[in-house]
Design goal:
The structure is a single chain. With 185 residues, the protein is α+β, with helices and mostly antiparallel strands. The chain has 2 domains: 108 residues, lambda repressor-like DNA-binding domains (434 Repressor (Amino-terminal Domain)); 74 residues, no CATH class. Helices cover 38% and strands 21% of the residues. The protein is built from 6 helices and 7 strands. The chain has a 3-stranded antiparallel β-sheet with strand order 3-4-7, with no helix packed on it. A hairpin with a 2-residue loop joins strand 5 and strand 6. It starts with 15 loop residues before the first helix and ends with a strand.
């Protein structure tokens, strides 16, 4: 799927994340198909990540892990930066003591501290409301070391300020039909 640019036509402007993804794939010496296999996705998804829609969320975490494990720190930083921007916080760093030396490493898996969750929810609800949508459900996912996923469903704010066509209105949002908090395995 790697195609040379047509003569006289400038290549599309890519996001920093897309550029980092292409750089990482090439540093690993992999084709889009091989890279798709590594990530467990389709080649068309990789092509889309590289051109029109950069990866988000879990994929960014996975890309950062791959980049760090392979020693490509610049790519890892680009993925981490995008993840922090997406979630609106800076991830805490971890200090590691090594024989009279202290190293500062970024923690590739920690995004929010528990004390920051309420502010993160409010920030995301606000962004969604500014786009003209309402939030009717919030889900947290917990991954276990055995590969199980547990979900917690959290009731969104009852009243949300929705912006449509430049006008902001306060709207009562219907609650979920089920209990306010459940965990499914």
């Amino acid at each position: 799927m790697d195609r040379p640019a047509k003569p006289g036509v400038s290549p599309p402007r890519r996001s920093v994340v897309s550029q980092a993804l292409i750089e990482l794939r090439k540093l690993l010496g992999e084709t889009q198909q091989q890279f798709a296999n590594r990530l467990g996705t389709a080649i068309t998804t990789i092509a889309r990540y590289e051109t029109t829609r950069p990866p988000r969320g879990r994929v960014l975490v996975r890309l950062e892990q791959i980049a760090r494990s392979e020693g490509h720190k610049n790519c890892a930083r680009a993925f981490r930066s995008a993840l922090e921007k997406e979630f609106g916080v800076q991830a805490p760093a971890v200090r590691i003591a090594r024989k009279r030396r202290v190293s500062l490493l970024e923690n590739p898996l920690t995004i929010y501290q528990r004390s920051q969750l309420q502010a993160a929810f409010d920030r995301h609800v606000g962004e969604i409301n500014r786009d003209g949508d309402t939030v009717v459900e919030i889900r947290l996912e917990f991954e276990t070391d055995k590969g199980h996923t547990h979900r917690a469903y959290i009731a969104p704010p009852t009243y949300q300020s929705i912006t449509r066509k430049g006008k902001t209105t306060r709207k009562r949002v219907p609650r979920m039909l089920g209990p306010l908090f459940q965990i499914y395995g």
